[in-house]
Amino acid sequence: MKRLLVTLVLAAALPAAAQDLLIRDATVHTAGARGTLKNHDVLVQGGVVRQVGPGLAAPAGVTVVEAKGRPLTPGLFGGLTGLGIEEVSGESATVDHTLALGATPTGHEHTWRPEFDVDVAFNPNSAAIGVNRVEGITFTVLSPSSTAGGSFVAGQGSAVVLDGRFDAALANSRSLFVNLGGGASPLSGGSRAGQWMLLEQAVAEARSGTDDGLLTRAGRAALQRYLAGGRVVFQVDRAADIRQALAFSKKHGLKPVIAGGAEAWMVAAELKAANAPVLLDALANLPSSFDALGSSLENAARLHRAGVSVAFTQSGDATHNARKVRQLAGVAVANGLPWEAGLAGLTAVPAQVFGVSAQRGRIEPGQVADLVLWSGDPLEVNTVAEQVWFDGRAASMRSRQTELRDRYLAPKGSLPRAYSGR
Amino acid sequence: MTMRSKATLLAATLLALPLLAGAAQTPYPSTYQPVASGPVLIRNATVLTGDGQRLEGADVLMRDGRIAAVGTGLQADGATVVDASGKWVTPGIIDVHSHLGVYPSPGAAAHSDGNEMTTPVTSQVWAEHAVWPQDPGFSTALAGGVTSLMVLPGSGNLIGGRGVVLKNVPATTMQEMKFPGAPHSVKMACGENPKRYYGGRGQSPMTRMGNMAGYRAAFIEAQKYRAAWDKYEAANAESGRGRGKNAGGAEKPAQDLRLETLAGVMRGDITVQIHCYRADEMALMMDLAKEFDFKIHAFHHGVEAYKLADELAAEGICGALWADWWGFKMEAYDGIQENIALVDRPENSCAVVHSDSSEGIQRLNQEAAKVMVRGERVGLKLPPEHAIRWLTTNAARAIGIADQTGLLAEGKMADVVVWNGNPFSVYAKAERVYVDGALLYDRADKSRQPVTDFMLGQEVSP
Known about the structure:
The complex is a heterodimer of chains A (about 425) and B (about 450). With about 425 residues, chain A is of the alpha/beta class.
């Protein structure tokens, strides 16, 4: 009996074994070379997509789901977020994405810590993860931030899968995050030119192994790894600054990713030539700063036309409302981006950008079966995720928000509402 | 015009009259003039009137800045005819919570004019004195179908100051945008913002106790102020002597801008707009309103309004809410996407979709669409003709302009949007936006798309 109890506890704590699944008669948006396949089936075995085709036979024991023509997509990318490393933005004890060693009373000589890696702070049990999981967000990239007392080289983060597993970071997805431009100027002596001066110094320290005051030994080692073709996400809006980021990357052997990129469309040809993808906020059409006077709703469409890979990330509350990223893709499509490219910007493109495309981002044989069945057009604001699967396992479609909803949806009873929902 | 609507108009005009009889006229008056326009007949559209009706194949006739008729088979000699076959027509969208102009784009420190956080009660400051008409956000909001908006001070203070209702027309001065006849509002704030800021400086309020004490102290002062003025005015009226002189020997009280606003609140001349997230705090504010005998028009942000939906409806208080924002602070932790739908559910409710955002104001239709699907998924019936109320008639009610706009009915201001289809979609676009009958935005015609002075001639052009 005791042993049985232990087994049950373990079963509750660990994800269930990968399931076999047949989803029948879906509109399969593969986000891959086959595009959209109407009235197709998707067979999942061992948590991996095995076949995509019409009229697939159901192997014995497989769970069959009738999609009835509804859209099926790969699990969506939630953008660059703090999911799992930020619970309540306003409560500093719950926020782990920003390092400011220079702001602590004890003081630290080195405030530049490219070795800072937020992955180890990841909490898969954050309520914000559940809230976004039920909306079809199955992976995100943990994005460190900068603040006073820290550095505009914010640190590192990986792509994480949002099914609640502890070891959620995906291999080969770790990136270095660098914040540039006017917003980061207070961290570079008041000038954006200081950003390039300090970055050059950091690179020199990493290359030479000598301490000129900026980096620790661990920091030099961390940066050295990126100088061998590592992925660096530059948060940058102004066209001129984007060009500097591309030139710096070329000079030092970095693989650049542009995030934000309000004026990226102005340097589309250079981005294409550098093979640099852009993660953008397709809602950002206002000159929100003097770095972003060229903001346009057509940013995504123009970049796509020029052959630049486009994915989506939010400039607003990217973490709690990560689910809003679908609306960004929809608005980009409403402003000239082809629909398939809009979906790819939430799936295949971010998977490619962050080095996980062999497993995720498309519905194809060999891909991990992280899937979402939608009530309608997944880029629409008037649709919802009907079911989410990770590794072919149906995820719970409950979250803290659905619990709160149901508690207050019900009529008042004789007991206070605190007794409902048990 | 019927007698009834005349009376309503008169009432609105009275609302705009000086809050204190001692003042000769409302200072900083509206100089708004509609752009001249001939009659326009929009034909054969799906029309959402704003009060729950949906008319198919319907026409809307605008003349002299007003809605002249809504119906089918309308004729109008000399009118510009707009074929709206396959299009949808709604009243102009109203955003009851905006900081356009006071926190404009670009986000320059020099233009950060929304929060007078020098002391917790600043009911003397007026948002209209800080509105920068060249904020490019006004133009993008217009392209999203927004024809009226209320610009409020921020939420850093317990009582942040007066808000102003604007018509969303390109202008050189705030006065040229000021909605004629609209009442002022006062912005108050519950919860974390005031106590965090002042508490962090070692000042009151440091706690929610301090918040409540702060509102109460201010209203107690204002009661005395109001009584002094009432006494003076009564003596003045009795003696029948001219204004501005000592009436019947009564000393004219000194004008106090801070208390004047709160006295106006208690007199019912100024609408009350309260930033308040938590249900328990809304309940306290409702009791505060009873203690000092004023009416709350709307709770703004109210991510927990769904917990108090019946009480809000019973008190006639609107919930001006987001579709999906939550979690950025403790008081926003219980947000749900069905909030607006649940606030809308009781009879006589007043659910409003608001933005508080230069991005959100451009897409209030999409925000409403999110709410519709969430509500329908839990069994509520929220068809387009109903949901449009959240952006039009309910919004107008929340800020005191329902007698003027928000509804496609004869005599109302001709604030009208022609959409490329059902507006409750991510693909929906406002094609034509009319303000008082004038076409001020036309998606198909660059010459009818405003460009602010700020954007004009920039080396970078989107």
